[in-house]
Design a protein that fits this description.
Layout lengths: L6 H4 L24 E4 L5 E10 L5 E10 L14 H5 L4
Antiparallel strand pairs: 1-2, 2-3
Bound molecules: FE2/S2 (inorganic) cluster.
The site of FE2/S2 (inorganic) cluster has 12 residues, from helix 2.
């Protein structure tokens, strides 16, 4: 981690589908620094101008701060919903 080593294939990972589309305000700027910080035993914190885009090209969020799930247990992927605490995720 954080790099893919194809373990998802052996684990039988299947995508849970597209997140629901929501109205997202246009960002004042689309460039600039994007800081990615792994939180302790929790999500990745992104700070900066960010657009979250699905694999099919739909933008589901435009934001300047977001927490992305890295434990795999969120019911609201790609966003963290706090499930990492319930499952005892250890980074
Ligand atoms: S990291 Fe928070 S729900 Fe996965």
């Amino acid at each position: 981690k954080p790099f893919c080593d194809n373990s998802h294939i052996k684990a039988g990972f299947t995508a849970t589908g597209e997140p629901p589309l929501k109205e997202a305000q246009v960002l004042e700027a689309r460039d600039g620094p994007l800081n990615v910080t792994p939180t302790a035993n929790g999500p990745l914190k992104l700070e900066g101008n960010a657009e979250i885009v699905t694999g099919t090209g739909h933008t589901v969020a435009r934001t300047t701060k977001v927490f992305l799930c890295r434990c795999g247990h969120s019911a609201n992927k790609p966003f963290c919903d706090g499930s990492h605490k319930r499952v005892g995720f250890v980074a």
